[in-house]
Write a structure and sequence with these properties.
Elements: H1 18-42, H2 45-49, H3 55-62, H4 73-87, H5 89-106, E1 113-115, E2 121-123, H6 124-131, H7 155-168, E3 172-178, H8 181-184, H9 187-190, H10 204-213, E4 217-218, H11 222-231, H12 248-263, E5 278-287, H13 290-295, E6 307-316, E7 331-335, H14 337-340, H15 361-369, E8 374-377, H16 385-391, H17 395-399, E9 403-409, H18 410-414, H19 417-420, E10 453-462, E11 476-489, E12 502-510, E13 513-514, E14 525-532, E15 544-545, E16 555-561
Parallel strand pairs: 3-4, 3-9, 7-8, 7-9, 11-15, 12-16
Antiparallel strand pairs: 1-2, 5-6, 10-11, 10-14, 11-12, 12-13, 14-16
């Protein structure tokens, strides 16, 4: 692309002598090399967070000659740079200390969190989704953008294509755009009096008209939540003050609206009664909020306090266990943390340690329907990841569904290219046309040995891992493919053979810190201890960075790095 500034100002040249150039180059190299070398070896990142990541060692790995199947030196150096920013203790402490001063003295946030009044915090990309170019008007090209960047796909075409694919299979799509905090509570950021209606993107009417014209049902509860805020203020807010998500009463209002629609459909009148008797249980939970976590302040700063919520657990009256997911249900819920926020304890509002709370959107919907629903809810993956997981299922399982309830943050629908990249993507999905095999096995891991076994093989694919500080979520998994797997210890499960390529999920980062397992590289021969993915249900809501295009892989969970 032509640089327009060259037409305005003449080019300038700066010349320095050879000796001066050498001196400046040496000083520059010493300045960028010596501090990391000294600080990282005196107090390495591994001593602080257990990641096992030592900068000097990892830099040597990054610049080694590239193998035939390797990602290449340039990509490895970019990954090293990202990890240096996040894992090196000296960099992390300096970043957190600076942020503590900016927030405490000047009330300044960062590239993720903005500070409002009266203790309210705002997610910056959420604000950008209301004021940016949006899903209809494309962003103009700019010399500031990488000309080799991938083509940005907006939401509208992906949604309408997905709806058409479902319609071919006799399934209705119900889109539920979850309102975001600045739509309902803009006054705590602007300082002005609250408007008379929810704040929406200027293209929202055109966007939703196009969606409905494609035969898609849209259940927009923004007006309902606004009304609850205005008329039922004594009942409390409908959004959390320090978190990107709704409070339980706002979530319940959305579940009631969806249940009312589904119960009115003709197919709902013919369903057999469910064998499960539902009951409820009232509990309380508290959390500091993900917007505070995104500020990345030093531990114990005391600047913010936990916010408490009253939850209604939906349980099986016979067992007392939380209602989770029923794969045989005619209704499947797709979503992310707006579905999981009061169900998945990793999102902060835990009430029973690591056990699922049973108080999320899907559980409230099940209670209103008096029928458990099928749930595919992966934090941070509502736009493409959950659709990909659903499309990978066997054809007969998919065609048994009557409705797909797709809960997605309105923020994701209206983000444009620049703020949206790294947060949301709108990939087209291809449905699996294969029926379920007659014998157990395949996509759900059925028939697999539930005992740990150890294999060795070569990593032929490693999914890209994002910068934890740029991620919307503090935890994430990623996927590798292990080729020519050979048993080392234990018994090979009956549904895989020696030499197969295995599809393995591992920790990418936890609590925004890269894990030790994120350090493996393509082309590297490793020995891994594995267990079936289905034996780790507590991880099924965690965001997964997955660059594979497999329909029905047998997924395995990485247990530990074998010596």
């Amino acid at each position: 692309m032509h640089n327009p500034y060259e037409d305005i100002l003449p080019p300038e040249k700066v010349k320095i002598g050879r000796t001066a150039a050498w001196i400046l180059s040496v000083l520059f190299l010493l300045a960028i090399v010596l501090p990391p070398l000294l600080l990282s070896n005196v107090s390495t990142a591994s001593a602080k967070d257990g990641s096992g990541w030592v900068p000097v060692v990892e830099f040597a790995k990054a610049v080694r000659p590239a193998a035939a199947t390797d990602m290449g030196i340039a990509q490895r150096l970019r990954e090293f740079e990202t990890k240096l920013e996040q894992n090196a203790g000296f960099a992390r402490d300096l970043r957190r200390g600076t942020q503590n001063q900016l927030t405490g003295i000047f009330r300044e946030g960062n590239n993720r969190t903005m500070i409002g009044s009266d203790g309210w915090l705002y997610f910056r990309p959420a604000l950008q989704s209301l004021t940016g170019y949006g899903p209809i008007t494309p962003e103009p090209s700019s010399v500031a953008k990488d000309p080799s960047r991938s083509v940005w796909k907006p939401a509208l075409s992906a949604i309408t294509r997905f709806a058409g694919q479902l319609r071919e299979r006799g399934i209705d799509l119900v889109l539920v755009p979850a309102p975001i905090m600045p739509m309902i509570y803009p006054e705590h950021l602007t300082g002005n009096a609250a408007p008379t209606a929810p704040v929406r993107h200027r293209d929202s009417d055109t966007f939703f008209h196009s969606i409905r014209s494609a035969g898609i049902t849209v259940i927009d509860v923004a007006d309902k939540l606004w009304q609850m805020k205005e008329t039922d203020a004594a009942e409390g807010a409908v959004f959390l003050k320090q978190d990107t998500h709704w409070r339980p009463r706002g979530m319940l209002a959305a579940a009631e609206a969806v249940a009312e629609y589904l119960k009115a459909q003709p197919w709902a009148q013919t369903l057999p009664p469910t064998p499960v008797e539902f009951a409820t249980e009232s509990v309380t939970a508290s959390h500091i909020g993900d917007l505070v976590e995104k500020l990345d302040l030093p531990g114990g700063s005391g600047m913010f306090v936990e916010e408490q919520v009253s939850l209604t657990r939906v349980i099986d009256a016979a067992t007392g266990e939380a209602i989770t997911s029923d794969p045989t249900s005619p209704v499947v819920v797709l979503g992310d943390s707006f579905v999981n926020i009061f169900h998945d304890p990793s999102l902060g509002f835990a009430i029973e340690g690591d056990r699922m709370n049973g108080a999320g959107f899907a559980q409230q919907l099940a209670m209103k329907l008096e029928r458990a629903v099928d749930v595919i809810a992966i934090n941070g993956e509502a736009s493409s990841g959950v659709r990909e997981q659903f499309a990978r299922r066997y054809d007969d399982e998919v065609r048994a569904k009557k409705a797909v309830v797709w809960v997605i943050a309105a923020r994701d629908l209206f983000l444009s290219e620049t703020p949206g990249k790294g947060l949301v993507r709108w990939d087209d999905v291809t449905f699996n046309s294969s029926p379920r095999p007659a014998q157990p096995g395949g996509g759900d891991g059925a028939g697999a040995n539930d005992q740990a076994f150890t294999v060795s093989g070569t990593i032929t694919m490693k999914s890209a891992i994002p910068n934890p500080q740029d991620s919307s979520y503090k935890d994430a998994l990623y996927v590798i493919e292990l080729e020519a797997a050979e048993i080392v210890r234990g018994k090979m499960p009956s549904n895989i053979n020696a030499g197969d390529t295995l599809y393995i999920r591992l920790w990418a980062f936890k609590n925004r810190t890269f894990s030790k397992t994120s350090n493996v590289q393509e082309g590297e021969k490793v020995t891994l201890q594995l267990i079936p993915w289905d034996s780790k249900p507590e991880l099924h809501t965690t965001r997964i960075e997955d660059d594979t295009l497999l329909f029905d892989p047998v997924p395995w969970w990485f247990g530990e790095l074998a010596e």
